[in-house]
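Comment thread on ticket #2218

A.B. wrote:
> Attaching the input chain for the structure job we discussed in standup.
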Amino acid sequence: MFMLGACAVMPGQSTPPRVDLVGLQVVSLDMFEQRYRVRLRIQNPNDIDLPVNGLDFSIDLNGRRFASGVSAEAIVVPRYGEAVLNVDVSSNVFRVFEQLRAIGSGKAERFSYRISGNISVANRYFKLPFEREGEVDLRMDANGHK
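C.D. wrote:
> Ran it. Output below, let me know if you need it in another format.
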């Protein structure tokens, strides 16, 4: 039991990393699948560097699965620092259609999102879970005015 608890965090690692969705760009649109480039900001609130060697995650929009993705890109997030990672994700046309229909009908004034997944740490046999939620007000313009 003690060994399982010891593997939950790295030595000196007490707080899980924060992962924020900071950008979404369309890469390709096909009949049944869309590809997006997602920009993720990984923040390390700990006193040791975080050597990330991969991650897997999913994005939910308005409570529904929107896209999922994986990355094997290795980056080091410095202690008390952050790094931005670009990851390609895929989505299904029906998921996108559901979201656009809710926005087009005027029912959605706010767009909620949830990103969750796991970060693989170099030379470790465990993953660090993360989850973050947020909202975007669709009535705001680029300057933050309604």
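A.B. wrote:
> Thanks. Noting for the ticket: Strands lie at 18-29, 33-44, 50-61, 64-71, 75-77, 81-92, 110-121, 127-137.
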